[in-house]
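Hi everyone,

Forwarding the result from last night's run.
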Amino acid sequence: MPITSDKTSSGIDRLVQIMQRLRDPETGCPWDVEQTFATIAPHTIEEAYEVADAIDAGDMGGLKDELGDLLFQVIFYAQMAKEQGIFDLEDIAQSISDKMIRRHPHVFGDNKTDINTAHQQTENWEKVKEVERSDKAADNNKQSALDGVTRALPALLRALKLQKRAARVGFDWPDAGPVFEKFDEELAEIKHEIEVGDQQALENEVGDLLFTCVNLARKLGVDAETSLRNASQRFEGRFRGIERILWDENRDITVTPLDELEQLWQRVKKEQAASAKDQS
């Protein structure tokens, strides 16, 4: 099957044709042919992060490429599902179109609702989703407030979503004060487990502390995922700065005393802060 390359075919149509060729059992690519939903899923997660990375870097050319990679993931799933007679790309587009119309009654509904701000829309969006979840759970008449929070989410994001769901039914502290107390409690429990030497209990307590950190960020209006990503970027920049200093002096970081590395860290930190201030 030839691939359409002229302007008479849309880019989406061409991409679908390419995917069909790649998945052809006889003439396709062996790697693409043997893939399944499960084997492709990790690649989809990776592509989504690369999209976010391009946005963080302000790289619009890179963003276009990464969005193409992410779109290809959707085409891949659609082709595999079509082969099994489950659904196809048109079904996916129809489903998300119906969902967007259903969740935006203030835009598409006959009776326009009083939604004038992004905050009001967020609240209405969650109400519509709650109705959808209730409809899905109607068969057994039992629905958890936590239903629908997928386990495949990154750990910080899933912790945040679980906390938000619990907060919507009243399971939440009124402000950040009690969270600070919980933080101190979890830290004390970690120190205790270190003394006891129970590695599994220590892992559990560290997890509780991380979960509390997400909760604290939420109560303070800080996005934990973004905050940690930015912290990692700062660490990377400062560490690379230390390496550059040592390289210029023909020195090996692995034999540099820790106290000297700490001094270099503080030096790089101050230099980068001054540079950022000059650019602002």
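Residues 235 and 269 are 9 Å apart (CA to CA).

Cheers,
N.
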